[in-house]
Design brief:
The protein has a single domain, classed as Sulfite Oxidase, Chain A, domain 2 (Alpha-Beta Complex). The protein is about 20% helix and about 30% strand. It has 4 helices and 9 strands, in the order H-E-E-H-E-E-H-E-E-H-E-E-E. It has helices at about 1-25, 55-60, 90-100, 120-125; strands spanning about 40-45, 55, 65-75, 80-90, 105-110, 115-120, 130-135, 140-145, 160-165. Molybdenum atom binds next to loops.
Length: about 190
């Protein structure tokens, strides 16, 4: 009888520990259901850089953050605000600087786990601290995505997996389909501006 109680106690302890460890992991910020399938929670920074590295969604939250206020517009419904509010995240510029871009780096290619891609000119990213990798929207955690105030939604890539600095004129999904590469929302092209 004693033996069985002992065995049961050990079992309970194991279950409790497993539960506790799992719980500890769940205190991390990105809700699991928001991670699309194939999503690893890691972003690779690669290409023409001195110091390629990987950053997890959790590590992103330890960087100095920035809040930007911006509506999101899709080119397919330019009169409609899709989302609007405060986005909190890390300037893409800071993430790139940490990798130390090489001289020949010209464009920033961004890849997502669903196959979607987009791009920025490196100069544009370095000149605009408001282009951020956002991990919070109106105080709620979100799966990290690009927020690019003043630019159409196709620049606002979600489910980011890879950021690659390249020397050539890389064009993303919508850009290679003929949409403007700078994606600037011009005055008059959307009533919200
Ligand atoms: N990974 C990924 N990101 C994406 C897209 C996509 O298809 N896949 N669509 C883009 C387009 S065209 C728009 S308008 C916005 C829409 O953002 P929302 O889904 O938050 O409304 O996401 C952008 N980011
Ligand atoms: Mo869009």
């Amino acid at each position: 009888m004693r033996k069985e109680i002992f065995a049961l106690s050990i079992l309970l302890l194991l279950v409790a520990t497993t539960y506790w460890l799992g719980g500890g992991k769940n205190t991390t910020q990105v809700p699991k259901e928001q991670l699309s399938s194939g999503q690893s929670g890691v972003i690779q920074i690669t290409g023409l850089v001195e110091r390629p590295y990987n950053i997890t969604y959790e590590e992103l939250r330890k960087f100095p953050s920035r809040e930007v206020e911006s509506p999101l517009y899709c080119v397919s419904q330019p009169d409609q605000v899709r989302k609007n509010g405060t986005w909190k995240g890390v300037p893409l510029k800071a993430i790139l600087e940490l990798a130390r871009p090489r001289g020949g780096a010209y464009k920033v290619a961004l890849y997502a786990s669903d196959g979607f891609t987009t791009d920025f000119y490196l100069d544009a990213v370095m000149a605009d601290e408001d282009i951020i990798i956002a991990y919070e929207f109106n105080g709620e955690p979100i799966t990290p995505r690009i927020v690019a105030p003043g630019r159409w939604g196709y620049k606002w890539i979600k489910y980011l997996t890879r950021i690659e600095l390249v020397s050539y004129d890389f064009k993303g999904t919508w850009e290679s389909a003929g949409y403007p590469d700078d994606a600037l929302i011009l005055d008059g092209s959307s009533p919200g501006r």
